[in-house]
Amino acid sequence: MRRALVLLMAAFWLVAFDPFRTAGIDPRPDARVPLEGTFLEADGHAVSLADLAAGKPLVLVPVLHRCPNICGATLAGLAQAIAAQRLRPGRDFTLVAFGIDPREGPAEASADLADLRHAVPALGPEGIHALTGAKDQIRAVTDALGYRYAWDDRIQQYAHVAAVAVLQPDGRLNHWLYGLAPAPDELTRAVMEATQRDPETWGQRILLLCFHYDPMTGRNGPLIWTLLRAVGALVVLGGGGWIAWAVGRDRRPVGPS
Hints:
There is one protein chain. By secondary structure, the protein is an alpha+beta fold. It has helices at residues 2-16, 19-22, 49-53, 70-83, 106-119, 135-145, 184-194, 202-210, 223-250; strands at 24-25, 39-40, 46-47, 58-63, 94-99, 128-131, 147-148, 150-152, 157-159, 163-167, 173-178, 213-214, 219-220. Helix 4 (70-83) crosses helix 5, helix 4 (70-83) packs across helix 7 and helix 8 packs across helix 9.
């Protein structure tokens, strides 16, 4: 009887508080993240997100620096996406591995940063940071983002989801990139939109329009297909009209010389 009661209480606890059900992201378009909080860099220096942004977009990855599961894969996948496109940390944006466990410190952040740079040497040394901080400072950022995570005593770690937040220089949330490895072109579009500047070419402007990100669904819109069909129809009509005009011109009677 006593054993059955213990099992029943354990089952009730799991249903009432399941960290893996608690973990997730609440859609908060245009949420503003506080950038003034103080965190520690991998070398132990105090810094704020505003210092690191320095007028550039922030690509912020919530991680556990000692995570035995998805965090390393998330950072590696993001690093590979960065290496496969033209925008670069330090020049175009700032990459931050943002530690969500307040028990971690610069030593854990330094090891994580070294692993990341070793995995993708093409990233270079500039514009990549690993931060740790106090619980209240961490929560101020994650709560503003709508990023939910919870401690699980059973596995002695935080249950959390794999995602990358792209912030405008003033701290406003521009995009969430979900999953372990964002597509390089998706990352490029997200950072370019977060800069609040016009794309460099007409083609890039078309891409930003067609693949405009919907933060409520976490997906890119299908407008590209409609636009491509319309452009294709215009090309066909234009080409057909030009051919008809050329044929008609050739058939005109030639007057006396």
